[in-house]
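FORM 12-B: Structure-to-Sequence Request
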């Protein structure tokens, strides 16, 4: 359910429950339960980018008509939280394998690592914005301040590469009404994921690899982190095994 419809529904439901308590003897705790359920839905709407609750995100690889006719089965490898020294290792692997991917970079990580961004661009990968600050406080700001943070990241990417990304990945996959306003104002497309690898907390490369391979399907957007050693370690094998499944590699947005 879209956030605006939810709001109308929530207000009507609350009005009904309050009227029930006042006029026909519903128990008072019924209001409390109703409010808690409504809050729980709201929190889940913030946490689950796939719900498209506050804003519409791309959560699957879009297929062009030609690709559909050709029977292409793409997945998109997406790497968050760079640039990082490990990004260079990821780029080496992608180059050796002839795979293109998408990198959502953090503005405050860019200083001194501009050549990494340049390499990402030169080697045919896609750059996306992952905020300047990348912290929880980002979400407690006005739409205006959020837009300024995102713009600052885009300006740094532009200064390093000459490109201004038009795709954005919300840190932690969290969305809220102010982020929706900020992205609409800036004309940026939010990109989520289909498959969250949880590589940031994974301990065993083999287990991580199997987890991804067991659930991956055509058109999945796979969330990885180039800063994680474990991700670098299993990446060549991941690419080989995805190819064995007949999957190819694309971007989370249609490229011209
Ligand atoms: Zn992140």
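FORM 12-B RESPONSE
SEQUENCE OUT:
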């Amino acid at each position: 359910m879209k956030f605006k419809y939810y709001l109308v529904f929530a207000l009507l439901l609350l009005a009904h429950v309050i009227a029930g308590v006042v006029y026909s003897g519903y128990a008072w705790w019924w209001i409390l339960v109703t409010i808690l359920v409504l809050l729980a839905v709201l929190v889940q709407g913030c946490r689950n980018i796939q719900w498209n609750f506050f804003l519409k995100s791309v959560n699957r690889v879009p297929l062009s008509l030609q690709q559909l006719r050709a029977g292409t089965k793409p997945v998109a490898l997406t790497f968050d939280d760079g640039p990082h020294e490990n990004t260079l290792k990821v780029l080496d692997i992608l180059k050796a394998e002839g795979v293109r991917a998408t990198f959502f970079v953090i503005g405050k990580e860019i200083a001194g690592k501009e050549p990494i961004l340049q390499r990402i661009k030169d080697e045919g990968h896609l750059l996306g914005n992952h905020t300047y600050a990348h912290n929880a406080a980002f979400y407690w700001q006005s739409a205006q301040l959020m837009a300024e943070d995102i713009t600052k990241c885009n300006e740094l990417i532009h200064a390093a590469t000459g490109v201004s990304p038009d795709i954005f990945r919300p840190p932690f996959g969290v969305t809220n009404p102010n982020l929706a306003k900020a992205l609409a104002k800036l004309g940026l497309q939010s990109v989520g994921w289909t498959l969250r690898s949880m590589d940031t907390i994974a301990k065993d490369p083999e287990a991580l690899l199997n987890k991804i391979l067991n659930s991956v399907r055509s058109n999945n957007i796979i969330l990885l982190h180039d800063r994680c050693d474990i991700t670098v370690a299993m990446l060549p094998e991941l690419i080989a095994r995805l190819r064995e499944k007949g999957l190819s590699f694309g971007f989370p947005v249609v490229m011209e």
